[in-house]
Amino acid sequence: MNAEYIIETRNLSKEFSGFIAVRGVNLKVRKGSIHALIGPNGAGKTTVFNLLTKFLEPTSGQIFYNNQNVTGRKPASLARRGLVRSFQISAVFPHLSVLENVRVALQRETGTSFHFWKSDSSLNNLNDRAMAALEEVDLADYAEAVAVELPYGRKRALELATTLALKPEVMLLDEPTSGMGHEDVGRVVALIRKVAENRTVLMVEHNLKVVADLSDTITVLQRGQILAEGSYEQVSRDPAVLEAYVGGHHA
Q1: Could you tell me if 86 and 166 are in contact, meaning their C-beta atoms sit under 8 angstroms apart?
Q2: What DSSP line would sit under 160-176, residue for residue?
């Protein structure tokens, strides 16, 4: 394996009751890059994400992370090693404050997960780290706000902060701008660029403008296979990619 790649898959495949969702995918994610997975609906993007984060087991093939074969690892083991997925549904506790949400993520890391009955004083030592994560996503002014009251784009920023609290080396972002208005998209794109400065980011994203704006490398999937790979300029001119996207620009 090449040390410049932080994630590598070899012939990764996933079959569901005779349906092959992912077929022989050889993905290489360069350390320190922003890498996007795009493709038409049903292309296998989410399945690849679920395989990488071990929410699904591959039918065949291997997954390497930092030059180590992690194919048989459990999701928590990968998270502890620094491969952390963000923007999952219900990633935020709506009735806790913004600061408390990040503190819960930090408790997860320290092994005192969900000990809500612990004394405040024992949790206050996590406050500095929680505030640092909030500052990184421009949410420090919202620390005392109740999460449910945040605007949608700020909620996404909070999910990003809870992920950052786990000190990820690689962040996997699952459609980080879905459902957002133009202003929120701009804010989240700026945040992703900021937090990616000293990390690797792999994202599934529908918004091709976001992909063009952020990504160093784009992998286009179709019917569970890699159709094309390269910069946005390269893949957007690829005849096979244009054919796959006939009928509109929806990834």
Answers
A1: no
A2: HHHHHTT--SEEEEEST
Q: Let me know: does 82 contact 168? Beta carbons within 8 Å.
A: yes
Shared-domain flag, residues 203 and 230? yes
Tally of domains within the chain? 2
**What is the C-alpha to C-alpha distance for residues 73 and 56, in angstroms, rounded to an integer?**
11
| 185 and 66 in a common domain | yes
CA distance 211 to 209: 5
pTM: 0.88
Tens digit of pLDDT for each residue in 65-94?
Answer: 999 999 999 988 888 899 988 855 446 788
Q: Is residue 87 part of a domain?
A: no
Listed in sequence order, the DSSP H helices in 65-217 are 75-81, 98-110, 120-124, 127-136, 152-164, 182-195, 208-214
Residue 231 CB contacts under 8 Å (≥ 6 apart), including other chains:
215, 216, 217, 218
- Structural domain of 12: 1-82+168-251
- What lies within 8 Å, CB to CB, of 30 at 6+ separation is 4, 5, 6, 200, 216, 217
Q: Count Cβ atoms below 10 Å from residue 77 Cβ, excluding itself.
A: 12
187-215, pLDDT tens digit by residue?
A: 999 999 999 998 999 999 989 999 999 99
With the C-alpha atoms ordered 84, 86, 91, 94, is the resulting torsion angle positive or negative? positive
CB-based contacts of 170, cutoff 8 Å, min separation 6: 6, 7, 29, 65, 82, 83, 84, 199, 200, 201, 202
